[in-house]
Fold each of these.
Amino acid sequence: MPTTLNEQQETIRKFRSIANFPTIIGAIDCFHIRVKKVNADGGQLYINRKGFSSVNVQVVCDADLKIMDIVTRWCGSVHDYRIFRECRLKQRFEAGAFSGILLGDSGYPCTPYLFTPLLNPTHHKKKDIIGAISVPGTQWKEVCLEILKQQKKTIVACAVLHNMAIDMREDVFSGERDSIEQYSSEPIVQRYIAPSIRGNIRRRQFIETHFQ
């Protein structure tokens, strides 16, 4: 994650250049990486809502789709919000370490530092906001890999290679469509998480300030 004020401002500037959405410092989402069936004790915890074994991986990406933060330690049955609730990144946001906010989907509660889509927008500007929030999630389809050993280290290594490829201006999504068609099933739908009162107020103020 960007640490200095200059780095944070540059990240925010790049996000704003995409959809004129201010103060965004990252887009957060989780995706499932298929693993071989775990037969050891606790193996059932790896079975997600679609019925296959996976690791639920949380990533935060910047406007260039580089992965700034990654969490790989959770089994497939764990909800996205629990992963965020117990990660160090949430603690850093609550401590005021960042000047911007995250964008996530409705699998997260709306908080003062993590905005989620409005479910029933009544204003065309609000509909534009939903579109901007939804874009990052489209990049993270289910990625299915058969990983036998040290799977979590392998996932992190793939994230590092992904960032290196972006720095080298390689087409990191070439062949992505074929992989999705070959391996992935329907997306795993997270249950809706109700926003917090403070998050609702902060989001409404944000919309009135920047999009009225």
Amino acid sequence: MATPGKPLKKEIKRHIPAKTSFTSPLTPTWMPLPQQDMYFILKTLKDKLISMGLEKKEMKVYRPRRTKKDQKAASASSEPVPQVQDTPKNGWTDVAARRQLAIGINEVTKALERNELKLVLVCKSVKPGHMTNHLIALSATRGVPACQVPRLSESVSEPLGLKSVLALGFRQCASKDEEVFTDTVDAIKPKVPSLHVAWLPGAAATEDPADMEEEEEEEEEAGEKRGQKRKLESESEEISESPSCTLQPLKVKKIVANPEKKRKKKVKT
């Protein structure tokens, strides 16, 4: 029998680690897309992909299963065993056109962070929905039109030869002659509703990337002239302008010295 002084192992509660996290009160949401615009976007995308013939082909080759008896018979006979090779048809039919697309949430996120996209379309049937919420702020800060399109995966995955397409982005090319989806992007852009992010006042999602680059160059030149140093006065003005931000006074009750701090002993001369 266990002594009454020591608790049993089952009674000892395991230490649950606690992690602090920040939850923003401003939750970004996708703007609703009218039904007519939805049908137009899906039809335009499907017709373009079918006309181009862009598809990922995966030819599955049947490999016969060999038993130990077959292996022994093959080793006894000196005849070479025919090897089954994969057909060279596997892969995308047009590699150059595939490089101009960003397919999937991860690929679209990386391309947005590098500022390589000019249009982003997200499927509405993504579960859970918060998997694509970060694309709203990324698209708004980079001036890229983005919207949530119902039935996007059902309409686009079949022509592309994929199981699902949860996000689709169109990349910017160095030369306009190489761009294949220029007419498609130009036709879809006017139908895309503008994004609204509460913590970005005045952020428009329909700005041209060229204008954004010019503004960034001007800001960099102005920052170099000022020496890229921030003043405390400007920071205090920004804080005072936001009415929702209220600072609480700090009250110091008691100051305790650190007992572990090693102090040097004064030598008397």
Amino acid sequence: MAFLEGPSPKQAEIIKQELGEGSGDLERGVRDLRSMCAASPYLPQPEVIDKNILELFVRGCRMDQERARTKFEAFCVARARCRDLYEHRSLSEPPLNDVLKFMDIAPLPKLTDEGLRVTIFRVRANYAESSTDIAAVVRAILLISDARMHDETLISGDVFIWETSNVRASLAARMAAAANSVRRAIHLAHAAYPQRMRRIHVVGAPPLIASSLNFIRSCVNDKIRRRYYLHQKVEDLLEHFPSRVLPAEWGGEEESIEVIAKKWRRRVDELRDYLRDLSELSNLAEEPQYDTDIYGTVGAFRKLDID
């Protein structure tokens, strides 16, 4: 059962104004993306695509149809070009079932006053070293992102909170070993998802992971780098978010992170068939060719403006 809450009527009006959404704009944008799919030999047929996903791309690109086309095309083609990132579609079976023993991944139910969706990534205490497969963590994050797209409502953007106080020194080496997967996933998040990243909060980061943080920041553009906030303790987050949004163990009014993360695990199981179909969106045999390749290192789609 979906449990993401949408904006209030007043918030919805403000968000639409911010996005530049006028009467009929959303419907025209969806029709345009469906027309692009119908005319393409390598994109899915229009009737296959869930309307909610198309609406997310139109709104996530602030009604810029050319940009929405580019991002949606990249979203589909990524399923073929980066198949290794999308080949496992369950959090209850190997190899992704161990990821949640290492990290809680929890998009929060309520929006902030600004209409932002907050997602928490918390490294768990006393995690087993065997659960720290960073490539598997990347796949799990993309999987939950896809599940969230099925349920997401009208929002003004995203905020990520990384709670890293339990990280051990050994994680830096594992991060370095999985650098290619991490780099590709970060580039895809910017180039192939309808995401408006507004802020990234990192809490409790020990000095031993400075190199890992620097690596992650090197994968994004200057505008996103300026949106990083570092905090020593989770209580500092109450200066940035209303308590009604944050989980109980951080001084908030929402359910605990563990409870919300388990709900997302169940939600992924409920959407298993949908998520498997989503991983087959592009016809590999008719795959388009790009001048530069975003799916390996840095490419053309990284030049897209980030709101």
